[in-house]
Each structure stands twice: as C-alpha cells, then as structure tokens.
Amino acid sequence: xxxxxxxxxxxxxxxxxxxxxxxxxxxxxxxxxxxxxxxxxxxxxxxxxxxxxxxxxxxxxxxxxxxxxxxxxxxxxxxxxxxxxxxxxxxxxxxxxxxxxxxxxxxxxxxxxxxxxxxxxxxxxxxxxxxxxxxxxxxxxxxxxxxxxxxxxxxxxxxxxxxxxxxxxxxxxxxxxxxxx
Length: 181
What we know:
The protein is an alpha+beta fold.
C-alpha cells in the first residue's frame, strides 16, 4: 500500500521516466477560486535531483498553473501507472515558473529538447513524496504522442505566438496575473 518517501531515488526516477502522462494540480488561495488539474505528456518532465523536478510548460489556452504558482507556489504532480504494476505517485511541493530571461531557466532548459510552444519551465521543490496503490486505475495501451500542439506552434511565427499568449495568457480564469507583456 501507500508510503511516504524521503526522496526520489533511482528506482522511482526510473519509474517516473517510463510514464507517458502526468497530472498537475494547483489552486488559488481564494476559497471561491477555481482548482486546476491539467494532464501533461510528451517528453516534458525531468527529475533534477532527489527533491527537485521540472517540466516544460507549453502554450495553451489558459495560464492557471503559472498564475497560481505566482500567487502561492502550491502544486502537486501525480503519476499513475496505466501499464504494468499498479502505482500512483504524488509529488507535493512549491513551484515557480521560470522564464527564458532567468539564469535558472537557462540551466534547466538544457535538460529538455527545445519545443517551439514552450512558455516557461515549471520548477518544483518537492516537499512530500507519497505513493498509493492505484489498484483501481485501469490498464491502458499507449499508442503514441499527439503532435497537434507541435504542428500548431510550428505554423506560428514568434510574433503570432506572442500575440496568442497576450490574448489568452495574461490572467487566470479567476483574474490572477499570468504572463507579463
């Protein structure tokens, strides 16, 4: 059954690297604000060290994670085994969005393949690592990654991507600040 771990060891890091999808959840401080949970995929997640992880934040129609992290930093990442032995892993922590003008971004970006849709890198200082059984999570066969976002961003010029982000990513659905322009 479930355990609380003190760090992401080599065995857990290996398991995480084999997962094709993960989920990101954040929330604003306001009780009336909207909780956000987003699925993520692609080769966009990295374990930096036993208590630090990061993922590429790609262009999307919302900016909830960035807005929530800028307000309060709280985040949880969840991995579910959809193949093999059942397992769920949650990484609770404090996250910050790193933008291309920061030194931290420049260091961590080297760990990822460049992506034309990247808005930022979300860096998380992991404070709690918890496993649970996942006994009722169904088995799924991974078919392939989707390339829709890749194709969409490749068809946009840098100015068109910036205009899209300015239109869609300035604030969260609750009005919290998102990207600055």
